[in-house]
Amino acid sequence: MLRPRGGPRSAALLALALAAATAACDNPFALPPAALPPTEFSLTLYAMTGTPLAYPSAYDLMTETSVRTDRTSSLDFAFDIVVDSLGNTTAVLLPRGALGLYRDGGLQITRTPYDSITFAPNNGYDEGTPLTVGVGSVVLAASRSQTCNIGYVYPLYAKMAVKALDLTTRSITLQMLIDPNCGYRSLQASTIPPSK
Fold first, then answer.
1. Residues with Cβ < 8 Å from 138, sequence gap 6 or more?
2. In Å, how far from its chain's centre is CA 39?
3. pLDDT of 77 higher than 50
4. Mean pLDDT of the chain
5. Helix (H) and strand (E) counts for the chain?
6. What's the pLDDT at 178?
7. What is the pTM assigned to this prediction?
8. What's the distance, Cα to Cα, between the start and end of the chain in Å?
9. CA distances from 45 to 19, 134, 163, 187 (A)
10. Residue-wise burial string across 99-134, b where 16 or more C-beta atoms lie within 10 A, e elsewhere
11. Given pLDDT bands bounded at 50, 70 and 90, which one contains residue 13?
12. Residue 151 — left, alpha, or beta (φ > 0 → left; ψ -120 to 50 → alpha)?
């Protein structure tokens, strides 16, 4: 007796393949639902020059940790205080490219008040130019790119406001908020970003 071709198993596999294809047609680049709310905190960094080596001068958005520039290149921006030939002192945030590292991610100054920013732009980030900042400056950041668990490559996004700048201790204090969900651009504290 001949068996019919296909059978229940083949029908189930075909149904699964069709469902996946239909879902992909809706939006093949859709992110999976976000799992974590953005985190907000205060951060102090010390200038790359004129401070003890053990003091962290840079920040890694992916791991949400302060890092030392002499120990790792896994960082997204650093802080320094520079003095020009006329003796003018300037505080700067340096994206990776300004440190001679691979240009990926970046920073941008915004005039939008920190508390009014609820969504990060997906472009406009400068990868290689130091940003001059002062108390009250608001900066948007995109991390270096990473491969998300869905296979796409995206950065993490953050906003920060300069709360204090101490030229004696050569330090900067930032209020920061980071969306830890790969590819998501929500910048609202304690709210899991909606699926888009």
1. 109, 110, 111, 112, 113, 114, 117, 159, 160, 161, 162
2. 12
3. yes
4. 85
5. 1, 12
6. 95
7. 0.81
8. 53
9. 50, 14, 12, 22
10. bebeebbbbbebeeebeebeebeeeebbbeebbebe
11. very low
12. left
Least confident of 18-22, 70-74, 82-86, 174-178: 18-22
Look at residue 194 in the predicted model and tell me its pLDDT: 62
| Domains of the chain by residue range | 30-179
Q: Which residues contact 143 (CB under 8 A, 6 or more apart)?
A: 61, 62, 76, 105, 155, 156, 157, 158
Residue 90: C-alpha distances to residues 7, 55, 78, 80 (Å) = 74, 19, 14, 8
Q: What φ, ψ does residue 114 adopt, rounded to 5°?
A: -50, -50
pLDDT one-digit tens code per residue, 150-159: 777 889 999 9
Q: How many CB atoms lie within 10 A of CB 158?
A: 27
Residue matched to tokens 């393949």:
17
Amino acid 188 reads: Q
Amino acid present at 128: G
Token duo for residue 23: 């879902």
- The single-letter DSSP state of residue 11 is H
Place of tokens 């990060």: 120
Q: Are strands 77-83 and 58-60 parallel, antiparallel or unpaired?
A: antiparallel
**Does residue 139 contact residue 107 with C-beta atoms inside 8 Å?**
yes
User: pLDDT tens-digit profile of 109-135?
Assistant: 999 999 999 999 989 999 999 999 999
